[in-house]
Amino acid sequence: MLQADRRSYIICVASLGHYRLRTIRYVKERMANELTIYSGTPAYDRYIKVLSSRDVDLREMANVYGPYQVLFQRVPVRKILAADNVIFDLNPRIPHVWILMLIRKALRRPTTLWGHAFPRRGPSSASDAIRGLMRSMSDGLVTYTRSQAAELAELHPVKDIYTAPNALYFRNEIGFSENTTRTDIIYVGRLESSKKVLDLLMAFELIAHHLPDYCRLVIVGEGNLRSTLDKMVSDSPLGRRIKLMGHIDIYESLKELYGRAFVSVSPGYVGLSITQSFAFGVPMIISRHEPHSPEIEAAVENRNCVYFESDDVNALAQKILSVWQDRRLWCSRGAEIAHFCADEYSVEAMGEGIIRALKRGNDS
Question: Any idea what DSSP says for residue 7?
């Protein structure tokens, strides 16, 4: 009996953040030698740690950024054109994606785009006209949320659309630690102006005297505001209760930090840290009026989060106090919060979405 030719699939993207490690390993293991991954470095933001060939089986590419973050890469053109399916970034600022997608279309080979369905300002943004043209040229789309998949299904009814919910951990890693003392407020994310970490620091200073001395503010991350925060903390009379931890991506370390937190805070726009917080059963305080990332879909007010009015430090301070006063209620919901995350935002769910997109729904 003749053996069928091996299929060939490619993921070729601008970069893969280190937080994608579990998902990429899962996809590689499930697809074995059928899949080749090409990923660039550095990321558009120098504070984002990216995956390398030392972390997982992938081919590294050098990223060169031009004006307006237009990205240039030397990609394996022949392999891309010969592959059964290719996943590129849904990012209009990558010229070779447009060109190779057109050539593959002429060759009658499908191309799938993966990323944010719409610009940060939403589908009504003027820039969505360009992104919309890119979406229409593809054969398939991979989104981060079900709501975005539903919106795209209305805009592109004849296109294959898949959901790969942004995930960090395997199902068996997600859970709530019942027997821990929870006295900390935690922030995890980049230290940049759009994240508004300075507002969180000021809010903590406003209400710290209403909290026991053992209550701390723990800030995890790096960014261009690190030196500013260092100085503010060193000058603050509350300096011993404010911990700047730097970048941490080790699961056990983060589990320990979240295990001591009664709440996490997103003082600016929400990113992937929301599902991270929920993975450990910790509710989140969220700024209401922000250009949030798609992960905001996971937020259910008064079940796993509460909102405060954006840019209002006093409102943020009062929400922190409110959650502290109701901490027993929130702790009683911890297992439910984590269970929801395990069901909806696991590595397995994300990985299977990517695999379905590559194979175009065909498991054979």
Answer: P
Alpha carbon of residue 296 to chain centroid: 10
Strands (DSSP E) found in 133-203: 140-143, 160-163, 184-188
CA angle at 14 for the pair 113 and 347, rounded to the nearest 5°: 65
Q: Are residues 188 and 220 in the same domain?
A: yes
Please give the Cα distance from 151 to 149 (Å, whole number). Answer: 5
Choose among 86, 84, 94, 141: nearest CA to 118.
141
pLDDT in tens, 280-308: 999 999 999 999 998 999 999 999 999 99
160 and 177 co-located in one domain:
no
Tokens encoding 73: 């890469």
> Which DSSP string do the residues of 94-115 spell out, in sequence order?
-HHHHHHHHHHHHTT--EEEES
In this prediction, residue 363 carries a pLDDT of 56
**Residues 210, 293: one domain?**
yes
Query: Do both 303 and 351 map to the same domain?
Result: no
Q: What is the pLDDT of residue 3?
A: 42
What's the number of domains the chain is made of? Answer: 2
Here the CATH number for the domain that contains residue 24 is 3.40.50.2000
Q: Is 184 among the domain residues?
A: yes
Identify whether residues 15 and 146 lie together within a single domain.
yes
| DSSP secondary structure, 290-329, as one string | S---GGGGG--BTTTEEEE-TT-HHHHHHHHHHHHHTHHH
Domain that holds residue 336: 171-344
Domain-embedded: residue 1: no
* pLDDT per residue as tens digits for the range 102-135: 999 999 999 999 999 998 777 878 889 999 999 9
Percent above pLDDT 90 for the chain: 91
Flag whether 4 is in a domain. no
CA quadruple 144, 145, 151, 157: dihedral, nearest 10: 70
Same domain for 262 and 248, yes or no, is: yes
Q: What is the pLDDT of residue 2?
A: 38
Distance CA 38, CA 14 (A): 8
Average per-residue pLDDT in the chain? 95
Give the pTM: 0.92
In a domain, 237, yes or no: yes
